[in-house]
């Protein structure tokens, strides 16, 4: 509040000085026109500082964990200042694909088999040039889980790998069945309520590097899948830490929100189109079991 008060005082003083020394010229270039512009800017700044820029709400299961986060991850206590010209969350989501860069990442691909005869594609970034952890057997490994229709090529995944590379970590991206170009071998895709594939992947990765610290991070549906896994496995998991981002707190409320006209137009239509494309790509695996024409009508 002290910082906000100071910012408001500075803005008010600058506005007063300007109005005292304004130069009277033609209409929009006149002092009155410029005053309106400056006044609007000050009002917007006041609104931004008082209503938009806020500290995150930190919710933990215990005081000790809260202190741990504040000591080792101080960003959770800092005020978050969204992009001034695009602070609304939906606007940021829509603009992200167009304005964010895609850091180059060279993957090593690995196909692993599942108990039901399917296959899962893992994309590895081994980070063999790590100066912090030169021993590959003990190099920390981060398992990354993309969103609903995402893969290892998503910009947010590439940026997470780029940051992990700077820390010296190794990364592996879990691509859901049939999403990253590999063939679907069984008539089964994926669901955030079913953790069998994730359990297979975690067991496989941990068996390769049993001495390395093992972490995981999931985005959107990937985060939901990760949370469901942790809730199911509990302390038996080999994961030392996990983090989720942009995960719905109440999935039923989220689904209802996505069906609202504006959100359907901005998000749900795109997600539905991507799912439709994925199902069509593997249509031959399902035609003998279900009415695919009926399924595709549900997407419309």
Automatic annotation (TrEMBL):
One of its GO terms (molecular function) is phospholipase A2 activity. It holds the Pfam family Abhydrolase_1. Belongs to the AB hydrolase superfamily. AB hydrolase 4 family. InterPro entries: AB_hydrolase_1, AB_hydrolase_4_sf, AB_hydrolase_fold, ABHD4. This is Abhydrolase domain containing 3, phospholipase. One of its GO terms (biological process) is medium-chain fatty acid catabolic process. Residues 140-241 form the AB hydrolase-1 domain. Keywords: Hydrolase, Membrane, Transmembrane, Transmembrane helix. PANTHER family: ABHYDROLASE DOMAIN-CONTAINING PROTEIN, PHOSPHOLIPASE ABHD3. The chain crosses the membrane at residues 25-49.
């Amino acid at each position: 509040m002290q910082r906000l008060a100071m910012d408001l005082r500075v803005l008010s003083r600058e506005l007063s000085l300007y109005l005292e020394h304004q130069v009277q010229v033609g209409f929009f270039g006149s002092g009155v026109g410029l005053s309106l512009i400056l006044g609007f800017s000050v009002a917007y700044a006041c609104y931004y500082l008082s209503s938009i820029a806020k500290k995150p709400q930190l919710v933990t299961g215990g005081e000790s964990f809260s202190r741990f986060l504040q000591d080792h991850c101080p960003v959770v206590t800092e005020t978050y200042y969204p992009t001034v010209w695009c602070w609304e969350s939906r606007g940021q989501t829509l603009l992200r694909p167009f304005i964010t860069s895609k850091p180059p990442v060279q993957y090593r691909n690995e196909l692993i088999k599942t108990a039901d005869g399917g296959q899962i594609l893992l994309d590895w970034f081994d980070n063999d040039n790590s100066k912090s952890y030169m021993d590959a057997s003990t190099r920390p490994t981060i398992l990354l889980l993309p969103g609903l229709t995402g893969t290892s090529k998503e910009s947010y995944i590439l940026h997470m790998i780029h940051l992990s590379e700077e820390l010296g970590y190794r990364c592996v991206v879990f691509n859901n069945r049939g999403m990253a170009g590999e063939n679907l071998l069984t008539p089964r895709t994926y669901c955030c309520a079913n953790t069998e594939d994730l359990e297979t992947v975690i067991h496989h990765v941990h068996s390769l590097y049993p001495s390395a610290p093992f972490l995981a991070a999931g985005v959107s549906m990937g985060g939901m899948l990760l949370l469901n896994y942790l809730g199911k496995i509990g302390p038996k998991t080999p994961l030392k830490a996990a983090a989720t981002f942009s995960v719905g707190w109440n999935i039923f409320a989220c689904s209802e929100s996505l069906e609202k006209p504006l959100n359907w137009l901005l998000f749900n239509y795109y997600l539905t189109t991507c799912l439709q494309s994925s199902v069509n790509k593997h249509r031959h695996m399902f035609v003998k079991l279900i009415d695919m024409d009926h399924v595709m009508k549900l997407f419309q």
